What does this fold into?
Amino acid sequence: MPETFQINGCTVKPGRQVTVNIPVARLHTHTEMTMPVHVVRGKKEGPVLFVCAAIHGDEILGVEIIRRLIDSKRLDRVRGTLIAVPVVNIFGFIAHNRYLPDRRDLNRFFPGSETGSLASRLASIFMQEVAERSTHGIDLHTGSHHRGNLPQIRARLDDPHTLALAEAFGAPVIIDANVRDGSLRQAVMEKGIPMLLYEAGEGLRFDEVAIRMGIKGILSVMRHIGMLPKAHVAKAKNGPLIARSTTWVRAPKSGILRAGVALGSVVSANERLGVIADPFGQNEEKVHAPVPGIVIGNLNLPLVHEGDAIFHIARFDQEDIDESLYQELQEAVNGQGDSLL
It folds into this structure.
Protein backbone atom coordinates (compact mmCIF):
# COMPACT_ATOMS: atom_id res chain seq x y z
CA MET A 1 0.00 0.00 0.00
CA PRO A 2 1.44 3.42 -0.90
CA GLU A 3 2.61 5.36 2.13
CA THR A 4 0.69 8.44 1.00
CA PHE A 5 -2.63 9.29 -0.58
CA GLN A 6 -2.89 12.76 -2.06
CA ILE A 7 -5.95 14.87 -2.71
CA ASN A 8 -5.79 18.54 -3.72
CA GLY A 9 -2.10 18.46 -2.82
CA CYS A 10 -2.83 17.25 0.73
CA THR A 11 -1.09 14.06 1.85
CA VAL A 12 -3.05 11.50 3.89
CA LYS A 13 -0.98 8.76 5.50
CA PRO A 14 -2.33 5.31 6.47
CA GLY A 15 -4.43 5.34 9.63
CA ARG A 16 -5.26 9.05 9.39
CA GLN A 17 -8.43 11.07 8.81
CA VAL A 18 -8.22 14.46 7.12
CA THR A 19 -10.74 17.06 5.96
CA VAL A 20 -9.66 18.90 2.81
CA ASN A 21 -11.38 22.03 1.46
CA ILE A 22 -11.01 22.01 -2.31
CA PRO A 23 -11.30 25.54 -3.83
CA VAL A 24 -14.13 25.83 -6.34
CA ALA A 25 -14.76 29.51 -7.14
CA ARG A 26 -15.41 32.82 -5.42
CA LEU A 27 -18.64 34.66 -4.74
CA HIS A 28 -19.23 38.21 -5.94
CA THR A 29 -18.02 39.31 -2.50
CA HIS A 30 -14.62 37.69 -3.15
CA THR A 31 -15.47 35.02 -0.57
CA GLU A 32 -13.86 31.74 -1.57
CA MET A 33 -16.17 28.76 -1.98
CA THR A 34 -14.72 25.33 -1.25
CA MET A 35 -15.96 21.76 -1.56
CA PRO A 36 -15.30 19.93 1.74
CA VAL A 37 -13.91 16.41 1.39
CA HIS A 38 -13.29 14.04 4.31
CA VAL A 39 -10.74 11.28 3.75
CA VAL A 40 -10.63 8.24 6.04
CA ARG A 41 -7.55 6.13 5.35
CA GLY A 42 -7.15 2.71 6.86
CA LYS A 43 -3.88 1.22 8.02
CA LYS A 44 -4.19 -1.66 5.55
CA GLU A 45 -4.51 -1.78 1.79
CA GLY A 46 -7.99 -1.91 0.27
CA PRO A 47 -10.43 -0.30 -2.18
CA VAL A 48 -11.04 3.44 -2.50
CA LEU A 49 -14.73 4.28 -2.18
CA PHE A 50 -16.19 7.72 -2.74
CA VAL A 51 -19.58 8.62 -1.28
CA CYS A 52 -21.07 11.97 -2.33
CA ALA A 53 -24.27 13.95 -1.81
CA ALA A 54 -25.94 17.23 -2.76
CA ILE A 55 -24.95 17.25 -6.41
CA HIS A 56 -28.38 18.87 -6.42
CA GLY A 57 -28.17 21.50 -3.71
CA ASP A 58 -31.62 20.85 -2.22
CA GLU A 59 -30.98 17.13 -1.66
CA ILE A 60 -29.90 17.41 1.96
CA LEU A 61 -30.79 13.89 3.10
CA GLY A 62 -27.53 12.51 1.72
CA VAL A 63 -25.59 15.15 3.63
CA GLU A 64 -26.96 13.76 6.89
CA ILE A 65 -26.17 10.20 5.80
CA ILE A 66 -22.54 11.13 5.23
CA ARG A 67 -22.35 13.09 8.50
CA ARG A 68 -23.46 10.02 10.46
CA LEU A 69 -21.28 7.72 8.36
CA ILE A 70 -18.15 9.72 9.19
CA ASP A 71 -19.12 9.66 12.87
CA SER A 72 -19.49 5.87 12.88
CA LYS A 73 -17.07 3.93 15.08
CA ARG A 74 -17.08 1.20 12.43
CA LEU A 75 -14.70 3.30 10.35
CA ASP A 76 -11.98 2.68 12.94
CA ARG A 77 -11.56 -0.74 11.30
CA VAL A 78 -11.61 0.40 7.68
CA ARG A 79 -9.25 -1.03 5.07
CA GLY A 80 -8.39 1.12 2.07
CA THR A 81 -9.74 4.66 1.77
CA LEU A 82 -13.14 6.30 2.10
CA ILE A 83 -13.59 9.68 0.36
CA ALA A 84 -16.73 11.36 1.70
CA VAL A 85 -18.08 14.49 0.00
CA PRO A 86 -21.24 15.66 1.80
CA VAL A 87 -21.87 18.72 -0.38
CA VAL A 88 -20.75 18.74 -4.02
CA ASN A 89 -22.95 21.62 -5.22
CA ILE A 90 -22.00 24.03 -2.45
CA PHE A 91 -23.68 26.97 -4.23
CA GLY A 92 -27.08 25.28 -4.49
CA PHE A 93 -26.81 23.92 -0.95
CA ILE A 94 -26.37 27.40 0.52
CA ALA A 95 -29.28 28.75 -1.55
CA HIS A 96 -31.57 25.75 -0.77
CA ASN A 97 -31.70 25.30 -4.54
CA ARG A 98 -31.31 22.32 -6.84
CA TYR A 99 -29.21 24.20 -9.37
CA LEU A 100 -26.07 26.31 -9.62
CA PRO A 101 -26.27 30.13 -9.77
CA ASP A 102 -26.42 30.01 -13.58
CA ARG A 103 -29.46 27.67 -13.35
CA ARG A 104 -27.48 24.73 -14.69
CA ASP A 105 -28.03 21.20 -13.39
CA LEU A 106 -24.60 19.98 -12.27
CA ASN A 107 -25.58 16.37 -12.97
CA ARG A 108 -25.73 17.11 -16.70
CA PHE A 109 -22.16 18.45 -17.01
CA PHE A 110 -19.87 15.55 -16.11
CA PRO A 111 -17.03 14.87 -16.74
CA GLY A 112 -16.74 18.64 -17.07
CA SER A 113 -14.07 20.98 -18.35
CA GLU A 114 -11.50 23.20 -16.66
CA THR A 115 -12.40 26.05 -19.04
CA GLY A 116 -16.19 25.59 -19.29
CA SER A 117 -19.15 26.98 -17.35
CA LEU A 118 -19.24 27.02 -13.55
CA ALA A 119 -21.09 23.69 -13.63
CA SER A 120 -18.55 22.20 -15.99
CA ARG A 121 -15.60 23.41 -13.91
CA LEU A 122 -17.08 22.04 -10.69
CA ALA A 123 -17.75 18.71 -12.39
CA SER A 124 -14.15 18.62 -13.62
CA ILE A 125 -12.80 19.30 -10.12
CA PHE A 126 -14.89 16.47 -8.66
CA MET A 127 -13.82 14.01 -11.34
CA GLN A 128 -10.12 14.80 -11.02
CA GLU A 129 -9.88 15.07 -7.24
CA VAL A 130 -12.41 12.44 -6.16
CA ALA A 131 -13.88 10.08 -8.76
CA GLU A 132 -10.70 9.27 -10.67
CA ARG A 133 -8.90 8.39 -7.44
CA SER A 134 -11.57 5.81 -6.54
CA THR A 135 -12.28 2.18 -7.30
CA HIS A 136 -16.01 2.34 -6.38
CA GLY A 137 -18.65 5.05 -5.93
CA ILE A 138 -22.01 5.75 -4.29
CA ASP A 139 -23.99 8.89 -5.18
CA LEU A 140 -26.83 9.93 -2.82
CA HIS A 141 -29.98 11.63 -4.16
CA THR A 142 -33.57 12.45 -3.18
CA GLY A 143 -36.77 13.32 -4.98
CA SER A 144 -37.20 16.88 -6.24
CA HIS A 145 -40.03 19.40 -6.64
CA HIS A 146 -42.15 18.11 -3.72
CA ARG A 147 -41.66 14.48 -4.77
CA GLY A 148 -40.66 11.68 -2.41
CA ASN A 149 -38.86 8.46 -3.29
CA LEU A 150 -39.02 5.02 -1.75
CA PRO A 151 -35.45 3.98 -0.81
CA GLN A 152 -34.07 2.42 -3.97
CA ILE A 153 -30.85 1.77 -5.85
CA ARG A 154 -30.46 2.76 -9.49
CA ALA A 155 -27.69 1.14 -11.47
CA ARG A 156 -26.74 -0.52 -14.74
CA LEU A 157 -27.31 -4.15 -13.88
CA ASP A 158 -25.71 -5.60 -17.02
CA ASP A 159 -22.38 -5.17 -15.22
CA PRO A 160 -22.03 -8.08 -12.75
CA HIS A 161 -19.82 -6.08 -10.35
CA THR A 162 -22.37 -3.28 -10.16
CA LEU A 163 -25.22 -5.77 -9.71
CA ALA A 164 -23.38 -7.38 -6.80
CA LEU A 165 -22.89 -3.97 -5.17
CA ALA A 166 -26.58 -3.14 -5.65
CA GLU A 167 -27.67 -6.39 -4.03
CA ALA A 168 -25.21 -5.87 -1.17
CA PHE A 169 -26.62 -2.40 -0.44
CA GLY A 170 -29.92 -3.96 0.58
CA ALA A 171 -32.45 -1.33 -0.51
CA PRO A 172 -36.00 -2.70 -0.96
CA VAL A 173 -35.98 -2.06 -4.72
CA ILE A 174 -33.26 -2.01 -7.38
CA ILE A 175 -33.96 -0.23 -10.67
CA ASP A 176 -32.08 -1.25 -13.79
CA ALA A 177 -31.66 2.36 -14.93
CA ASN A 178 -30.02 3.73 -18.03
CA VAL A 179 -27.52 6.53 -17.49
CA ARG A 180 -28.30 10.14 -18.40
CA ASP A 181 -25.97 12.07 -20.65
CA GLY A 182 -23.67 14.27 -18.60
CA SER A 183 -24.47 12.55 -15.31
CA LEU A 184 -21.84 11.62 -12.76
CA ARG A 185 -22.89 7.99 -13.12
CA GLN A 186 -22.18 8.05 -16.84
CA ALA A 187 -18.79 9.73 -16.41
CA VAL A 188 -17.72 7.31 -13.68
CA MET A 189 -18.90 4.26 -15.62
CA GLU A 190 -16.85 5.38 -18.62
CA LYS A 191 -13.82 5.26 -16.33
CA GLY A 192 -14.63 1.62 -15.56
CA ILE A 193 -15.62 2.35 -11.94
CA PRO A 194 -18.72 0.51 -10.62
CA MET A 195 -21.13 2.96 -9.00
CA LEU A 196 -24.53 3.01 -7.32
CA LEU A 197 -27.09 5.79 -7.11
CA TYR A 198 -29.20 5.76 -3.93
CA GLU A 199 -32.56 7.55 -4.21
CA ALA A 200 -34.66 8.13 -1.10
CA GLY A 201 -36.81 10.78 0.53
CA GLU A 202 -37.62 14.31 -0.57
CA GLY A 203 -35.59 17.45 -1.26
CA LEU A 204 -35.04 19.83 1.70
CA ARG A 205 -36.44 17.23 4.10
CA PHE A 206 -35.03 14.56 6.40
CA ASP A 207 -36.52 11.06 6.51
CA GLU A 208 -35.15 8.98 9.38
CA VAL A 209 -35.90 5.62 7.76
CA ALA A 210 -34.25 6.66 4.49
CA ILE A 211 -31.23 8.05 6.34
CA ARG A 212 -30.69 4.93 8.41
CA MET A 213 -31.24 2.68 5.40
CA GLY A 214 -28.65 4.70 3.47
CA ILE A 215 -26.03 4.36 6.20
CA LYS A 216 -26.76 0.65 6.53
CA GLY A 217 -26.44 0.23 2.77
CA ILE A 218 -23.10 2.03 2.51
CA LEU A 219 -21.64 -0.02 5.37
CA SER A 220 -22.93 -3.19 3.72
CA VAL A 221 -21.23 -2.26 0.45
CA MET A 222 -18.01 -1.54 2.34
CA ARG A 223 -18.18 -5.02 3.88
CA HIS A 224 -18.90 -6.54 0.48
CA ILE A 225 -15.79 -5.02 -1.15
CA GLY A 226 -13.54 -5.81 1.83
CA MET A 227 -13.27 -2.35 3.40
CA LEU A 228 -14.88 -3.53 6.66
CA PRO A 229 -14.96 -6.91 8.43
CA LYS A 230 -17.89 -9.14 7.63
CA ALA A 231 -20.76 -8.77 10.09
CA HIS A 232 -22.95 -11.56 11.42
CA VAL A 233 -26.34 -10.05 10.69
CA ALA A 234 -29.64 -11.69 9.84
CA LYS A 235 -30.29 -11.61 6.13
CA ALA A 236 -33.61 -10.70 4.63
CA LYS A 237 -35.77 -13.67 3.76
CA ASN A 238 -36.12 -12.39 0.22
CA GLY A 239 -33.66 -10.50 -1.91
CA PRO A 240 -34.43 -7.00 -3.19
CA LEU A 241 -36.94 -6.63 -5.98
CA ILE A 242 -35.26 -5.83 -9.30
CA ALA A 243 -37.28 -3.75 -11.75
CA ARG A 244 -36.29 -3.59 -15.40
CA SER A 245 -38.61 -0.66 -16.16
CA THR A 246 -40.56 2.11 -14.45
CA THR A 247 -43.54 4.24 -15.44
CA TRP A 248 -44.56 7.76 -14.43
CA VAL A 249 -48.28 8.36 -14.02
CA ARG A 250 -49.20 11.91 -15.03
CA ALA A 251 -52.15 14.03 -13.99
CA PRO A 252 -54.95 13.78 -16.59
CA LYS A 253 -56.26 17.21 -15.53
CA SER A 254 -55.40 20.14 -13.28
CA GLY A 255 -56.82 20.29 -9.77
CA ILE A 256 -56.33 19.02 -6.22
CA LEU A 257 -54.98 15.49 -5.87
CA ARG A 258 -56.26 13.16 -3.16
CA ALA A 259 -53.80 10.27 -3.19
CA GLY A 260 -55.09 6.83 -2.26
CA VAL A 261 -51.77 4.95 -2.17
CA ALA A 262 -48.49 5.53 -0.34
CA LEU A 263 -44.85 4.86 -1.14
CA GLY A 264 -44.19 1.13 -1.14
CA SER A 265 -47.76 0.21 -2.05
CA VAL A 266 -48.20 -2.75 -4.36
CA VAL A 267 -50.69 -1.88 -7.10
CA SER A 268 -52.32 -3.84 -9.88
CA ALA A 269 -53.01 -2.64 -13.40
CA ASN A 270 -56.01 -0.27 -13.54
CA GLU A 271 -56.08 0.08 -9.75
CA ARG A 272 -57.22 3.51 -8.56
CA LEU A 273 -54.29 5.59 -7.26
CA GLY A 274 -56.17 8.75 -6.39
CA VAL A 275 -58.68 11.38 -7.45
CA ILE A 276 -58.17 14.87 -8.91
CA ALA A 277 -60.94 17.42 -8.36
CA ASP A 278 -61.52 21.14 -8.60
CA PRO A 279 -61.73 23.17 -5.32
CA PHE A 280 -65.52 22.68 -5.24
CA GLY A 281 -65.39 18.91 -5.76
CA GLN A 282 -67.81 19.17 -8.66
CA ASN A 283 -65.51 17.76 -11.33
CA GLU A 284 -63.55 14.70 -10.29
CA GLU A 285 -61.36 12.38 -12.32
CA LYS A 286 -59.87 9.14 -11.08
CA VAL A 287 -56.22 8.29 -11.65
CA HIS A 288 -55.44 4.64 -12.40
CA ALA A 289 -52.24 2.62 -12.53
CA PRO A 290 -51.32 1.79 -16.14
CA VAL A 291 -49.13 -1.16 -15.06
CA PRO A 292 -48.78 -3.48 -12.04
CA GLY A 293 -45.92 -2.88 -9.63
CA ILE A 294 -44.76 -0.92 -6.59
CA VAL A 295 -45.11 2.82 -5.99
CA ILE A 296 -41.50 4.05 -5.71
CA GLY A 297 -42.19 7.78 -6.05
CA ASN A 298 -45.03 10.20 -5.44
CA LEU A 299 -45.94 13.88 -5.48
CA ASN A 300 -46.43 15.25 -1.98
CA LEU A 301 -47.92 18.56 -3.14
CA PRO A 302 -51.69 18.09 -3.72
CA LEU A 303 -51.93 20.95 -6.24
CA VAL A 304 -51.32 19.61 -9.74
CA HIS A 305 -51.39 20.78 -13.30
CA GLU A 306 -52.37 18.61 -16.22
CA GLY A 307 -49.35 16.52 -17.20
CA ASP A 308 -47.59 16.70 -13.83
CA ALA A 309 -45.81 13.50 -12.77
CA ILE A 310 -47.71 12.33 -9.68
CA PHE A 311 -46.86 8.64 -9.15
CA HIS A 312 -43.79 6.60 -10.14
CA ILE A 313 -44.31 2.85 -10.48
CA ALA A 314 -41.60 0.20 -10.71
CA ARG A 315 -43.10 -2.44 -12.91
CA PHE A 316 -43.48 -5.97 -11.52
CA ASP A 317 -45.87 -8.75 -12.35
CA GLN A 318 -48.15 -9.49 -9.43
CA GLU A 319 -46.83 -13.04 -9.05
CA ASP A 320 -43.31 -11.65 -8.47
CA ILE A 321 -44.44 -10.01 -5.21
CA ASP A 322 -45.42 -12.69 -2.75
CA GLU A 323 -46.96 -11.93 0.62
CA SER A 324 -43.79 -12.44 2.68
CA LEU A 325 -41.77 -10.18 0.38
CA TYR A 326 -44.45 -7.49 0.58
CA GLN A 327 -44.42 -7.71 4.38
CA GLU A 328 -40.64 -7.34 4.35
CA LEU A 329 -40.92 -4.29 2.13
CA GLN A 330 -43.48 -2.64 4.40
CA GLU A 331 -41.32 -3.28 7.48
CA ALA A 332 -38.38 -1.62 5.73
CA VAL A 333 -40.47 1.38 4.64
CA ASN A 334 -41.86 1.81 8.15
CA GLY A 335 -38.47 1.54 9.83
CA GLN A 336 -38.99 -1.91 11.34
CA GLY A 337 -37.24 -5.24 10.98
CA ASP A 338 -33.57 -6.06 10.48
CA SER A 339 -32.98 -3.84 7.46
CA LEU A 340 -32.04 -0.79 9.56
CA LEU A 341 -29.24 0.00 11.98
